[in-house]
């Protein structure tokens, strides 16, 4: 497989195999738009399953219990905090989690003792978490504030680096796409959103941008002197860049996803739930979506936006006119899309590429 | 040694030097006993209690909570926790929140202590005395008979009873004046700098106090609001006992003490000069203060006096009250002309009043430095805030669960690393080993830095931090992937390996720096704007991003430069991961129309061997030009096409190899813009 991927990479690099990703951008935009709409729909309709860190309340984790039946916990809660409806879940193999609404700190202490007695464990091994009702809102607001500031900074940095604000805009739209899609999956599947998942979401920002910047760097390299030739349009050169970085994108995604899935697996298999699993789950979804968007959303979007720049629009028009009139020739793939590369496979123009000597 | 090798060696030596310094420092720390080889663990891994508090202003409050107020609150909580004997507590601010981390499972009283809000009180000073605890009897003996030998300043009256320790006596005698008449007092103060408590009056005072204590108090209990707050009647037996027992040499008494009943006498320690002070009832509270500022003191002419002052703005009501108080205090003898400012059970200042202070503005001066003036102003300002601390999150993590999580995290990290290693070796063959080496170097650097920071700045590794490290494996490995893919691209363009490495590095460096900058930006934003776990995560993410850059520059690239010179890589060994054959080039261009095909591997009749025979170039370095090789290939192709059926049924492998090499040849031509294949033109025509 390794050599196959390498050879596939060769063909992609030379332009021999080309996937018309930019050319078919309308299709990808449609796919993404539909996914976005569904995500928003689910978010609005179903909403996120927020953990107690956001809703307020108390949570106990009793580790290494002999029996994982919920009755002892329910009894203990009924006795100390009547009116509460505890949600008891088993984590991993022999840990128990009890979630409650808000309780007073006296109740919290009594309940710790009662749960320790009920499950026959030492009181000091019990973990609890008591969260005020406004904490989640504050954290959420802070995350949102961080997000906005981050996006502004990123916009400036990318605009300066690539000297094209449209590139920055495309990167940021791709980023929002990733984030929205990931949150949409969370809403759909009902995974609990905890502060750890928020960490995961925020990391997706970094990762998605990182990935996009790598692809854009190649686009930038390929299209740097796009106006010094009239054979290919900006879009075609950008498409070549996406194809050329395809192998890198796949390798990177696999390498990034391997440790994440290892956390995810260990996290859910050994521990049941917790910070590790929550972060890993968000990252797993986000990174997968991030790879998709850096290929199928960011670059096509970048081309769609930049095609409006007068210089690029004029150039594209000229290239197409020349091609129409037969003054320039381009190689085409089987499906008829333009392939950036030599006209005939195996033929090198050799001296033909040199300027013609003037006849006297 | 060539220039390239030299620079590569230099980089590697630099990296080694960094490691030696880092681990050397750590080893030195471990040997001296202050550091440890393992980094400190945060609460969620080590177990303990984390309380997150948010300061909340009372409704209608005009002030705003500033960073200095938060710092002040942290300082007060730290004092309290330290005083309660809990070791290694960590109290930090994150955004607008205060995060208190207590190890182990602290009892409820410690938790309550943390959340209790601090109060500011103004009480008139009655007695100022020696910091050590005394019985009433001893105090009396001390006071009446024994002069304090080291009290040099007020040594002349032999009868001196002042239990005031001399070293800081001058600090105690800060002066509070009306802000408007600053000039007058300023000159006064400079003329007779900080009059030390007059021995005579103090003697009298102590005498009176002793009398009061001994006899009067039992008969006439002071009544709040009626009895003169400066009256010695407030020194009831209870206050006397409290005063005597109080030990101002003990750190416990500088935090978390009860504020006492505002309507009775009180005694506390002064954090400014470590004296013990007995006071009357509360006359003003933090509510009576608008704000406090500090700055250099100026005369009315606007010239600097060279020292600093703290300006107090009272509210209208507070100003009126203070006017009265100052009027009363100004007429009294020292130390009863002082009033004590008590914050959270500690006297932070006890200036003396020399004259009436009307107008609701006062200035405390004396021998302040810029810092001490600022500190006092911050304390006063904080005390003036109608602020309470709301417990947002109260989390107890048992050590058992923390341990489980850490263990799982480490296992996950290990598995993740192994998977990445397997994948990169699979993808990049020997080059994958460079990835593995780089990852190990990055891992060692990260571990060293975290252990160092855990020692030097008290960094604690949290579970979210561990997650950040694991995620970083992928992001770090990506830098190498970007670099290696670029090298392959350059090889596909037909460059020799050293030149490909050189060109690829120039491009990859840009990409790596740009994407790492974005990553760092994300980590930085998260770190500064987020709270709790997010911070730990952002920190390790940022750290590993920096280390990634370090490793790529000082290890991966230099090693690549050196490897590019080895035979194994330069000749594109099949397992080097840089085999030009696999990258679409069946031979490397040597220059002058000559190519160097890869040396045949004797005894290996694999695909590559077949390819060579199809091309008719069995012997390595056969001296054929590129064009000649191509012509031979085309011939072979034509033959293969002529008898397709036979070949297909008989030797499948050969057919495949033939078409493969045809494709390769096509690719080479189609793609070449570097001019190295231009020579083929001659062959064609």
Question: Could you describe the 3D structure shown?
Answer:
The complex is a heterodimer of chains A (360) and B (685). Chain A is elongated and about 105 Å long. The model of chain A has no long low-confidence stretch (mean pLDDT 82). Chain A has a four-stranded antiparallel β-sheet with strand order 3-4-2-5. In chain A, strands 1-6 form a two-stranded parallel ribbon. In chain A, strands 7-8 form a two-stranded antiparallel sheet. Chain A is α+β, with helices and mostly antiparallel strands and 360 residues long. Chain A has two domains: 2-50 and 135-312, Multidrug efflux transporter AcrB transmembrane domain (Multidrug efflux transporter AcrB transmembrane fold, Up-down Bundle); 57-131, 2-Layer Sandwich (Alpha-Beta Plaits), CATH 3.30.70. Chain A is built from twelve helices and eight strands. Chain B has helices at residues 3-32, 43-46, 67-83, 108-115, 136-144, 169-172, 182-191, 199-219, 237-245, 316-330, 370-384, 399-428, 430-456, 463-492, 497-529, 533-563, 567-570, 607-614, 626-642, 644-650, 652-671, 680-684, and strands at 48-57, 90-94, 97-103, 120-129, 175-178, 266-270, 276-279, 284-285, 289-298, 304-314, 339-343, 346-349, 352-353, 361-365, 387-397, 587-591, 594-597. In chain B, helix 1 (3-32) runs parallel beside helix 13 and helix 13 packs across helix 16. The longest helix of chain B has 33 residues, at 497-529. Chain B has 685 residues and is an alpha+beta fold. Among the domains of chain B are: 3-41 and 402-570, Multidrug efflux transporter AcrB transmembrane fold, CATH 1.20.1640.10; 119-385, no CATH class. Chain B has a five-stranded mixed β-barrel. Classes of the chains: A alpha+beta (360), B alpha+beta (685). At the A-B interface, helix 1, helix 5, strand 5, helix 6 and helix 8 of A face strand 15, helix 12, helix 14, helix 15 and helix 16 of B. Strand 5 of chain A pairs antiparallel with strand 15 (387-397) of chain B.
